Structure formats: structure tokens, C-alpha cells
Amino acid sequence: MPAIDTERVVETADPPATRALGERLGRVARPGDVIAVTGDLGAGKTELAKGFGVGLDVAEVISSPSFVLMAEHPGRIPFFHLDLYRLDGPDEAVLGGLLDEREGDGVTLVEWADRLRDELPAGRLDVAIEILPGERRRVVLRASDARHRAYLEVA
Ligand code: ADP
Ligand code: MG
């Protein structure tokens, strides 16, 4: 079982609650952070990302950047929002180009992060969303290094 200070489990009752969780996470985001979000289609990854943008004071509407793979939104710090849903098969060239040094100036949130495989940075916050009956969602947050533990305190 993981140590208590590296993991938190929260449940949200409806979409606004998932957005509110994302907003709390966005408020404490710092340059260089990576948020790796996983969960089935419709789990609420984009809902969480929308709230995260609010927490970063992003003024633009955040939608699913499925066709461009990555959207960059100006905010308190730059918000790099990746959605790898349409990435079919391990295309190393594409994967390698998605994470570059520019993202060190902002925070990167990746939907379908499991598709990044080995390209995913070792230091990150993993957010796994599980669909429960009705509108409930179980959200498991796991920090893989000390800096990403800040998120667990606000989750
Ligand atoms: P994903 O990006 O994981 O595919 P979305 O965030 O686009 O999922 O969509 C989630 C869908 O599930 C939305 O239609 C939303 O209204 C619905 N939903 C129901 N309950 C919740 C909840 N607790 N949290 C987030 N979304 C929820
Ligand atoms: Mg999505």
C-alpha cells in the first residue's frame, strides 16, 4: 500500500464538484508541473481540465483539444492541455515532440496520459478518474515526487 502522504482518494458527486477539484489543483500549480490524467471516455478528464484552467486564471474556454493534441492557454502561468485520445499506436516521433522544454515555463495536463508511455516524465501528479454509479467519480491522486505533493493537500 502506498504511503499516505503520496496518495489521496476523493469522490466527486457531480460535474461541478469535479471542476471544483480541478480548480483547487490549478491554484497551486507551479511551472514545470505535470498532471497525468487517466480514465475511460466520459470519466471527467476534460471537466477536471476546465476547472484546472479556472484555477490558473485562464480566460479562454477550455475544450477537448482532440484534433490538435495540444492547446496552449495563457493564464497565471501558461497552461498546456494535451488530449491524446486520437493518438493511435505508439508513434514515437509524435510522442517525443509533445513534451518539450517550453512546457517547463508552465503546467502541463495530459488527458489519456497512459498513451505517452515512456515519454511521461517521472516527476508528476497522476490523477486516475473512475466512473461510479450515477454521477459519482472516484479520483485517485498520486504524487511521484515531493514537489507534486502540494496538490494532495488541496484535493
Ligand atoms: P473525458 O474527458 O474523461 O472523456 P469529459 O470530462 O469530457 O470526459 O466528460 C465527462 C462527462 O461525464 C460529462 O458529460 C459530464 O457532464 C459527465 N459527468 C457526470 N458526473 C460527473 C462527475 N462527477 N465528474 C465529471 N463529469 C461527470
Ligand atoms: Mg476529454
Overall description:
The structure is a single chain. This protein is α/β, with parallel strands linked by helices and 155 residues long. 23% of the residues lie in helices and 25% in strands. Strands 1-7-6-2-5-4-3 form a seven-stranded mixed sheet. The longest helix has 13 residues, at 15-27. It is globular and about 35 Å long. The chain starts with 6 loop residues before the first strand and ends with a helix. Residues 12, 14-15, 17-18, 39, 41-47, 111, 135, 137 line the site of adenosine-5'-diphosphate.
Blueprint of the fold:
Elements: E1 7-12, H1 15-27, E2 34-38, H2 45-55, E3 70-73, E4 79-83, H3 92-98, E5 107-111, E6 125-131, E7 137-143, H4 150-154
Parallel strand pairs: 2-5, 2-6, 4-5
Antiparallel strand pairs: 1-7, 3-4, 6-7
Helix pairs in contact: 1-2
Strand content: 25-35%
Shape: globular
Distance between the termini: 20 Å
Total helices: the number is 4
Low-confidence stretches: none
List keywords for this structure.
7 strands, single chain, 155 residues, binds adenosine-5'-diphosphate, alpha/beta, seven-stranded mixed β-sheet, 23% helix
Give a summary of the structure in a few sentences:
The protein has 155 residues and is α/β, with parallel strands linked by helices.
